[in-house]
Amino acid sequence: MEHVQSPHWPFLIDIYFFLGGLAGGAFVIATIANLLDSQRYRDVVRIGYYLALVALLPCPIILIVDLGVPARFLNMLGTFNTSSPMSMGAWALLGFSVMAGLAALLTLLEDTLRGRDYGTAKVAIGVVGGFFGFFLAAYPGVLLGATAHPFWTNGHALGALFLAVGASTGAAAIALIIAATRRSADLLARLNTAIVMALIVQAISILIFLGSVAGSGSPGAARSLGILLGGSYATLFWLGAVVVGLVVPLVLGFMGMRRASVGVTALASLLVLVGGFVVKTVIMMAGQV
């Protein structure tokens, strides 16, 4: 695997990682809902596919702006190198963009042309796009691990963490829209369960990442870890990523399992979105110190 020479990325890349993960998570959740029961979960499928495309649209623009020259993005697509995280990421973004566009288009045709059903095509597109969505959500963690910075290279489960954040924020964004439109409480209950499960995986992944960094014996990794847990980024991590993004939403989520509430689900979903962005951003920030 090649190493990315410079681990210094601007704030735009934090947004790119967040939106890409959210898009992948929303798409996969919509596909699962479509496979389980396309009629019962119709709103989840519709909103998930539309949301995936909307969240994805800024990603190529952000990536091209960061690269500085549009031709560089095209150059990454010019070769298919499985040992290069940058090349694989560019191809995953392209493949997912095509699948997300097709899924949203077929959903729009079903919404505007009454009586039309593209169920079979949407299943095929969803399965293929779901593969790209999983990859797009997880690959930033792999990309960070391929850099020369010890905080990321010595930390395990970054891919799992980014994937879990994509799943939790994707489900939260869908739930927030459904709550705002006062849709079925059953859908909110199902999404609430998905959010809770993703947050549990997210919490476990954070613990594994921090534990592996702490046990690596690397002075550089230890310095970044100290800044994250007890230094200048500590408040952002503990308050934003842990309390706001994990603890409170989990408490609200467990409450929602007993009794579904539009207000509680909406609040929990909003906090998950904030916390998901913060945890990715603060790990990026600490790794560049």
Uncertain stretches of 5 or more adjacent residues: 1-7
Based on CA atoms alone, the radius of gyration comes out at 19 Å
CATH class: Mainly Alpha
**N-to-C SSE series?**
HHHHHHHHHHHH
Distance between the termini: 24 Å
Mean of residue pLDDT values: 86
- Number of separate strands: 0
Supply the helix-strand structural class.
mainly alpha
Q: Please, how many domains?
A: 1
Largest sheet: none
Helix coverage percent of residues?
Answer: over 70%
What features would you describe in this structure?
The chain is mainly alpha-helical. The chain has one domain: Formate dehydrogenase/DMSO reductase fold. 82% of the residues lie in helices and 0% in strands. The chain has twelve helices and no strands. The protein has helices at residues 11-37, 42-56, 58-67, 70-78, 85-112, 119-145, 150-153, 158-180, 185-214, 219-230, 234-258, 262-287. α3 (58-67) packs across α4 (70-78), α8 (158-180) runs antiparallel to α12 (262-287) and α10 (219-230) crosses α11 (234-258). The longest helix is centred in the C-terminal third of the chain and has 30 residues, at 185-214.
